[in-house]
Write a structure and sequence with these properties.
This protein has 565 residues and is an alpha/beta fold. It contains 15 helices and 15 strands. The protein is globular, with a radius of gyration of 24 Å. 50% of the residues are buried. Bound molecules: 2-acetamido-2-deoxy-beta-D-glucopyranose (NAG) (4 copies).
Length: 565
């Protein structure tokens, strides 16, 4: 029995030692409380504004996310930092627009042969929390760079960017070519793009989807279990789903669970994991002290026909600057602090979270070692999250405008109820194109379409004078306002905002598009093929506990009946 306990603690110890501490804590953490909560961010990939039942989808099943919505607050005017994965995540995690960080150019997202990543002078949310004494952890999709020098240096991995604990993770992403059904790719997955890491080590190539969701959840539970040893110290956990990006997948429990097909199955599986996270916080007695945010990284990849999600009628989708590309589902949950069942129409941005925690957790010692304070693009939304913002206060949409970029092109700006488009990109599958039927026979995409992925200058549509929409009356951007006494000054305000904004952007090195194929991860070279993912530590813990129960039972039996034989 003692041996087992020893084993338990040595597993915990080993895990803590394996994670070297690169960012130092400068300040003591606040004692965890409802006003200084743990923070868990649940980031879903490509989930559309209209993909959840609670956001109006007529075919998606009720899931644990609907319970989260009933117990928390749902936002209808939440925006991502960009409409593609890497820049939107870069924006969220630094609180700064991707244009400031240089997450522009190249393929618009990091691909395995990119040598760039988040610049080291940027401070990630994890680093910021860590400087303030929080414990930090993550699992799932990263997509903010991998290697810089060779295929194992891992310079840009989450463990180098403030995360103490890193479980099962996708340093790149789940892509369509990872599909294992052989329906779209008869030769099976393209392993060069499909790999899974455990911490800093590549462990599956190609990655296997069957146990992926369970493993992600297990690693979250393991982190939580370890946190119980320091109950007053707050933590930050980034749970970043590979769902519902193509290729969609579902294990045997969720396959055919949705009337909507595989896309809905994939949502149901993801939502199960959300339920597990919330339930384990509740059963650990941590719910009142933990703020959980669920959001998408941007709009759905609507170009993928039935493999893409729903914008609920918002125009466009992933990769362009219409509302369908930027407006995201966003749910906040913290029983007792975040009002239950509330719907907020206030304009918020994924970048506001950084600014909110930064303001709430002053740490002068950390500022002293940073040469300069980098300008943040968000605003503090703590009182809005709590539903305590006074009606008399200026609307957040006027406090900080929403800027819509397509790569390095500034396309549009929203302030107040108005959105002004200077440029737009063409919309694929816009209903006027006869080829749509050819591209999506029976709703099945023939290719991984990205009409506006790179936003090349020659494909952009210039609007002079700029188009103005009232996105409160007309979130679908159907009816540009006609020139009148209101529209002309709105264009003037938009021009001023954009001028000021441009002045604030300092030239920086572009991180995307510097390729060297020798940095591409490869498991067991030269094969680049493996499956050596270990049993998850939480599962091991549970197994050890079971063993302990059995041995306790044996001891009891022994004490009553004496030893066997
Ligand atoms: C990879 O690069 C890192 C950093 O430059 C270096 O420390 C390491 O030795 C290199 N590994 C190999 C196998 O060359
Ligand atoms: C797999 O993807 C790589 C790029 O990552 C590409 O060069 C290669 O041609 C692809 N292989 C197949 C069989 O499609
Ligand atoms: C509709 O799609 C076609 C083909 O992609 C494109 O030429 C056209 O500009 C699109 N229209 C709009 C309004 O985006
Ligand atoms: C790519 O990386 C390898 C290994 O570090 C290096 O020898 C080579 O010069 C690099 N190629 C380019 C084009 O930078």
């Amino acid at each position: 029995m003692h041996r087992l306990e020893g084993l338990l603690s040595s597993i915990l110890l080993l895990i803590s030692i394996a994670n070297s501490h690169r960012t130092e804590p400068f300040c003591n953490p606040p004692r965890v409380s409802p006003d200084d909560p743990n923070v868990v961010v649940l980031m879903v990939d490509d989930l559309g504004w209209g993909d959840l039942q609670s956001y109006g989808n007529p075919a998606q099943e009720e899931t644990p996310i609907e319970k989260m919505v009933r117990e928390g607050t749902r936002f209808t005017n939440a925006y991502s930092a960009d409409s593609m994965c890497s820049p939107s995540r870069a924006g969220f995690i630094t609180g700064r627009l991707p244009i400031r960080i240089g997450v522009t150019g190249g393929a618009r997202v990091f691909i395995p042969q990119d040598i760039g990543g988040l610049p080291k002078n940027e401070r990630t949310m994890a680093e910021m929390f860590k400087e303030r004494g929080f414990a930090t952890g993550m699992v799932g999709k990263w997509h903010l760079g991998i290697n810089e020098h060779n295929n194992t240096d891992g310079s840009h991995l989450p463990s180098r960017r403030g995360f103490d604990y890193v479980g099962v993770n996708l340093p790149f992403t789940n892509v369509w070519e990872c599909d294992t059904t052989q329906k779209m790719f008869p030769d099976g997955p393209n392993a060069t793009k499909c790999f899974l890491y455990d911490g800093d080590e590549i462990v599956q190539q190609p990655m296997v989807f069957d146990d992926m969701t369970v493993n992600l959840v297990d690693d979250f539970k393991f982190f939580l279990e370890e946190r119980k040893t320091e109950p007053t110290r707050p933590f930050f956990f980034y749970f970043s789903f590979p769902h519902v990006h193509s290729a969609q997948f579902a294990n045997s429990e969720f396959l055919h669970s949705s009337m909507r097909g595989l896309y809905g199955d994939n949502i149901n599986e993801m939502a199960w994991a959300v339920g597990e996270v919330l339930d384990s916080l509740t059963s650990s007695g941590m719910a009142e002290n933990t703020l959980v945010i669920l959001m998408s990284d941007h709009g759905p990849h609507a170009e993928l026909c039935l493999n893409g999600g729903s914008t609920a009628g918002l125009k466009g989708g992933k990769s362009n600057s219409y509302e369908g590309g930027f407006r995201i589902p966003f749910v906040a949950w913290q029983p007792g602090t975040i009002p239950a069942g509330r719907v907020s129409h206030e304009v918020i941005s994924s970048m506001d979270l950084y600014k909110t925690f930064y303001d709430k957790l002053p740490c002068e010692a950390a500022e002293k070692v940073k040469q300069q304070l980098l300008p943040l693009d968000g605003t503090n939304i703590w009182s809005e999250l709590k539903g305590k913002r006074s009606k008399k206060e200026k609307s957040l949409s006027r406090v900080r405008p929403i800027f819509y970029y397509c790569n390095s092109h500034l396309m549009a700006v929203r302030f107040g109820r108005h959105k002004v488009h200077f440029k737009t990109s063409p919309i694929f599958r816009n209903g006027t194109d006869e080829n749509t039927k050819q591209w999506c026979p029976g709703g099945k995409p023939l290719d991984d379409w990205y009409v506006s992925q790179k936003c090349p200058e020659d494909e952009l549509i210039l609007h002079d004078p700029p188009l103005v929409f009232d996105v409160v009356y007309d979130p679908y951007e159907m009816y540009p306002l006609v020139d009148d006494d209101i529209v002309i000054p709105i264009r003037g305000i938009a021009s001023d905002l954009i001028l000021d904004h441009r002045f604030s952007i300092k030239p920086t090195h572009q991180q995307l598009g510097r390729f060297n194929s020798s940095v591409m991860p490869c498991c067991d070279p030269p094969l680049c093929k493996c499956n050596k993912l270990k049993k998850r530590p939480y599962t091991q813990l549970q197994m050890l506990r079971k063993l302990r129960e059995i041995s306790e039972e044996e001891e009891l039996l022994e004490s009553v009946y004496g030893p066997e034989n």
